[in-house]
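Question (not urgent): is this output format expected?
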Amino acid sequence: MKYSLLLMAFSAATLSLMGCGGKKENADIITRKPTVARVQKTKTMGDYRQSRKVEWLGATYTVETDFRADRSLPQVADGVQKYYDNRVTVRILRADGSEFFNRTFSKTDFSSYLDNEVGKKGALLGVVFDRAEGGYLYFAASVGSPDKSSDEYVPLVVRLSRFGEVSVHKDSTLDTGSDTAPTTEAEEEDGV
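Got this back:
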């Protein structure tokens, strides 16, 4: 019996040594966690509305501009981020409340002043009242990168005559308060 116990103990020790006798290598397997592409929501550039009283041609007018993202227009992208393009409605009311002018602008109204890159990737960034001078009302407009931190844009001047005729030209100076009248007869007659 003592012999059998000793044999069993010896067998157990031998088996345990055989189980541990093989040399194991700890090989680390390094893999990269797959990146999940986040679908970013299409952004808007922020809607705004502005209303100003303006003295023009001896009368008081109210100039209203309404800037809105338009989901029906083709989207534009600045890198990976997509944006909705915009429409701007300019409405001018006489002192008695009757409407002198009402027009909605989109990027296509300015396409002849844009290069291919801005025309494809740019958005209408705004149309805002600048000044009344002589028989004209002047508005500053711009088309460019929809990213608010970007300074890439094409400055334009929209000129409205006392007869409601609209003409557009590139703003050669970045200060819209300076002389921005067209410099050539061709630019003078260029209308939208």
